[in-house]
TrEMBL record, chains A, B:
Transmembrane segments: none annotated. This is S-adenosylhomocysteine deaminase. InterPro entries: Amidohydro-rel, Metal-dep_hydrolase_composite, Metal_Hydrolase, MQNX/HUTI_composite_N, MTA/SAH_deaminase. Pfam families: Amidohydro_1, HUTI_composite_bact. GO terms for molecular function: hydrolase activity, acting on carbon-nitrogen (but not peptide) bonds; metal ion binding. Residues 60-425 form the Amidohydrolase-related domain. It comes from Halalkalibacter wakoensis JCM 9140. Residues 26-48 form the Aminodeoxyfutalosine deaminase/Imidazolonepropionase-like composite domain. Keywords: Hydrolase, Metal-binding, Zinc. The lineage of its organism: Bacteria, Bacillati, Bacillota, Bacilli, Bacillales.
Length: 474, 474
């Protein structure tokens, strides 16, 4: 049979079944962007004649990673809000009001390139200006599941006291809902579902109950997922109890949000019982270990969610906090933070977090039928890892394989040497094939300088980090 | 004045003073392997004429990192002992007896290359076969502070029950002490102190009190540091209490070990009072966050040690456990694990862990007068970081600098683009200038395969990891 592409001689990790689905000297046959066969090289070589044959000798080949939650635009201010408490208020707060759509877009592009080069093929990007960012994903060729903020709170968090309830401005709510609906109309289902959209109420504390209900009705009517921050911190719980005398999840239950359309991000402040309720209602979870660890010193209840039988994906969140937009970092931190949380080295072994970054993450964001494993009928989103990189060396196959522990614990990202989405190579050996990397880096640098120069007069609001600099520590 | 090398136009972080010692558009003048001036480029360009001029535009330039504790030879078995409890017994235990000097050396070479490429210039390498490894450091040109295991326990840990006291064999003690003394005689002070030696009693539980005392007498007589695992786990405490009815630090106090010659590694199971006693006696600490986090799910008391006023260095430990032999990883994990331990994002900010990886780490291992900062009279061990790498972008200088947070939290290692030791470039843009990388990787791969094939009959001893593989999870 004639096909587009045949990958041969791979150390193949299909992620099929309950483990990593290893096939020694494996092959993947791809036609029209989809996987048409997976199996031993000998067998597939007999059955298929390919336009392009990719020799994957000394390569680990696996499904592309799913970044289940990121705010790519924060790339524009990487590293300005570290080591500070009240991160949203005092860390990024002073900078937020100076961001423009133009410089946010520049930050997004850079972060997306960073993720792609480290093997992310699906970006669940929750960003502004989302319509422009969608154009970039169109050009880049990566898979995107896009969301924008529906909220009624103006950019004033840095001026509030810790106990103040956030002000709501309904006009902001209308405007942001409109933008999200425009995103859905223009992009949901684009390019045979390569780009899809979800609805993004920012969190139960960021919009009024009326708008929350309106969003849920639209989600039901249009069969859309709701991608939302839930119980993200004690800060949110304080807002919810102050406003409604209810914790986030009880509130969401009451207004009908707890069902399989909910992708609940963070859950840092959720109790075990709340987590179990979410799983019972078939909501899914995204854990952003790096971000929550650095911003709050906390480890969200991903293990409880998994134990209760739920699906958990991994998200890199934002680079003005977490700093890294890539899933190899998230896999490692998720495994290590939970080992520490439970003082148990057996918690979340490498193969489990690899499943969270691939097949289970895909299910968690509602794309389980299309991506997440290398299996017949799924889209050919595929990552190659160079096993001759020193961080992946030596490669051991007996008495057990070390590929997966080394990918999760030792690899740093640069070992990824080829990335395919829909069977098309987007990145190979350090080069991006569909966009101009240099322009993107230059633009990001220029806009960041412009933005932060404007912030100069706000020094008094920037806490730790600015103090550190004045004392010669940054 | 004529000199060998002038580095100009750097974003220079000298690590002088109490912070990071930033100099905008900075320069470093180097002659005969030492730093002869540090200051603004304009000024140094007037004062010096150099044989070699290195333009560091768009580069962050800082002192080389000190890996204060590593067992490089475990590189030969990277990734075989993950996600398992009783790591020493059940994780590496079954493999340990099959290691030969030849394959340990191959593992060491690969791990050392990995560290150098990510900016480690000083390797406090606690390894076997140390005399051969010293030859490799001689050839490579890196700075090395070498130690080998003085111990009386044979390689039988994997056959013991958890409560069994380790057997001591005095003949092993004599042999290993002899090797350490040979190391001192042949290498201590080599090449104007580029290679030095310390004494390495493995830990208070691994040799008899008589041999411990003998080692301490030699240390006093020859003015050598003692590089030792101390209170490394509850396992050690159990041995000490079982044998002597004393905890490790009380025991060490009694036999005169607690003074400024002691470099105490781990201290995982040390109490706050024990930590304070060590600081009072001017011992120093090395924390191996990655290794202890992954092997035990614990966070050693580095913050307590720092608070009590002690010096703490960072160590990468071994790659059959921690997996990564590089300090950018260690800086990040040390900061994040301690934020989580104390549920406080302000704990161990980026600049503090950068000091631990450079100037304070140098002091902790007794090399504070020679390395650790860029300052006149110190050795020219210098690292260049490419600021155009996406992980370091954008570069922000106002209202505060983001170089240090991005180096610690975002960089992955591949941003290091040049490494100098004693003013000599050893690594530049992915190439090693003094050794053949390809041979080293090939050799390591070959020996790893040979070794693990021999271990095949020991499957029954390998716990989690082998179970995982049988179930298709690895």
């Amino acid at each position: 049979m004639k096909i587009d592409t045949l990958i041969v001689h791979a150390d193949l990790f299909t992620m099929q079944g309950k483990g990593v689905g290893y096939i020694d000297n494996g092959a993947v046959a791809i036609d029209a962007g989809k996987i048409v066969a997976v199996g031993p090289t000998d067998q597939l070589q007999k059955e298929y004649t390919a336009e392009e044959r990719i020799d994957a000798t000394n390569k680990m080949v696996l499904p592309g990673f799913v970044d289940a939650h990121l705010h790519s635009y924060w790339g524009i201010l990487r590293g300005v809000a570290q080591d500070t408490s009240m991160w949203m208020h005092k860390g990024v707060g002073p900078f937020r009001r100076y961001l423009t759509d133009e410089n946010r877009l520049a930050g997004s592009k850079m972060n997306i390139l960073e993720g792609l080069a480290a093997g992310t093929t699906t970006f669940c990007d929750y960003s502004t200006p989302i319509l422009d960012i969608a154009q970039f994903y169109k050009q880049l060729g990566a898979r995107a599941r896009l969301t924008c903020f529906i909220k009624e709170v103006p950019d004033v968090l840095d001026t509030l006291q810790e106990d103040d309830l956030y002000p709501f401005e309904p006009a902001i709510g209308e405007k942001t809902l409109h933008e999200n609906l425009e995103l859905v109309d223009r992009w949901h289902g684009y390019d045979d579902n390569r780009i899809t959209a979800t609805l993004g109420p920012q969190g139960p504390d960021f919009l009024s109950v009326d708008l929350m209900k309106k969003v849920k009705n639209i989600a039901n009517e249009k069969q859309l997922k709701i991608h939302m921050h839930v119980a993200q911190a004690a800060r949110e719980t304080k807002q919810m109890v102050g406003r409604y005398n209810k914790r986030s999840i009880a509130f969401l239950d009451e207004i009908g949000y707890l069902d399989d359309s909910l992708i609940a991000v963070h859950l840092t402040d959720a109790t075990k019982e709340e987590v179990e309720l979410l799983v019972e209602r078939e909501a899914s979870m995204v854990v952003c270990s790096g971000a929550i660890g650095i911003i709050r010193g906390e480890v969200p209840p991903a293990c409880s969610f998994l134990e209760a039988g739920g699906n958990v994906g991994l998200g890199s969140d934002q680079s003005t906090g977490n700093n890294c937009n890539q899933m190899i970092n998230e896999m490692k931190l998720t495994a290590l933070f939970n080992k520490i949380k439970y003082k148990n080295p057996e918690v979340l072994p490498a193969w489990k977090v690899l499943r969270m970054a691939t097949v289970e993450g895909a299910k968690a964001v509602g794309l389980g039928d299309e991506i997440g494993s290398l299996e017949v009928g799924k889209k050919a989103d595929i990552v190659f890892v160079d096993l001759t990189a020193k961080t992946m060396q030596p490669v051991i196959k007996s008495p057990m394989r070390n590929h997966v522990p080394n990918l999760v614990y030792s690899a740093r990202g640069h070992e990824v040497c080829r990335v395919l989405v829909n069977g098309q190579t987007l990145y190979e050996n350090g080069k991006y094939l569909t966009v101009n990397e240099e322009d993107i880096v230059d633009q990001c640098q220029r806009f960041a300088t412009e933005t932060t120069e404007k912030v100069t007069k706000e020094h008094f609001r920037i806490t730790n980090a600015y103090e550190f600099m004045k004392q010669g520590q940054l």
